[in-house]
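User: Quick sanity check before I run a bigger batch. Here is a single chain. Can you write out its predicted 3D structure?
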Amino acid sequence: MKKILLGLQVLLFCLFNAALLATIVQLSGVSGPFDHLNYKKPEYNNVEEYDPSLQRINSSTSLITYCDSLYNSSFSDNKGGAFERHYADIVSSVIRKRFYHGYSHYSVSDNYLSVLFSRATLDGYSAIVIPEDILKHPNAACSQQSIVMMDVLKRKGLQTRKVGFSGKTAGHFCFEVYYDGGWHFYDTNMEPDVALLNAHNRPDIATLVNDKELLLKAYSRYPKEKVLDVFSAYSYGTPNAFSAPRGLIFQKAAKFLSYTLWIFFLTAFIIVRRKYLRLAHKKYVRNSRIYLPQPEQGTSPSYYPGITAPGA
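Assistant: Done. Predicted structure follows.
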């Protein structure tokens, strides 16, 4: 038992130091020698509507404030009840300009546990799903851009739902917004022709997929084969439900543990250490007892009748 506790102490002590070092690196904001674990940031292709000046929008609050200001400057006198449609269009336009395509991942200096777990299993575990953290990056994949926009719209009281695509060679992630008595399709990542879709009252995905001519015109800058493959099969998510609930729980838990895991290892080390010392002390006390020989008892005369004891 002592050997097991001794080995456990060594393991916990090493884990404590490793976790503490990782936390210090994370707090410093510099990955340093662990840069090789980070995922490479994709480069802007100079084709999308990306506007670097919008990098100042780095939180959900600042994004909503910016979209509110655009809406108020354009529709301050609008009393026709078309807030949902106009606001959704504004947020969509901002998101298209705020990000360029490419997954944004946590780095070792952001959330080292997500990075390590992702490297050991699947890359997706470090692909950010928390809206606030996605907005810290200039790039975002289709799912991430959708998550940010859906989060903003839900905060403003609009109803949204995920639309997932599963083509034979590629997948895609978009969403729909409910207003004017129906659902309307938005895709901030592949950036279809906004004027064309608005001219058709921004149709839902079912209408768009069934109208192949409109679909191909809307995505005219992509090869026909790719468009038909990506949009060949789709499914809906639950309205107003977060699109990646398990990922959200995992990343929040990993972020919390990335700052506190060393405390758990230190506490476990102290507990095991105390148990080891108690066990060692007990064994020492048991083995340290001194044997004191008892004085030899005198022979009683009653055992030898007829013999007179000396001095009798």
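The mean pLDDT is 89.

User: Great, the batch can go ahead then.
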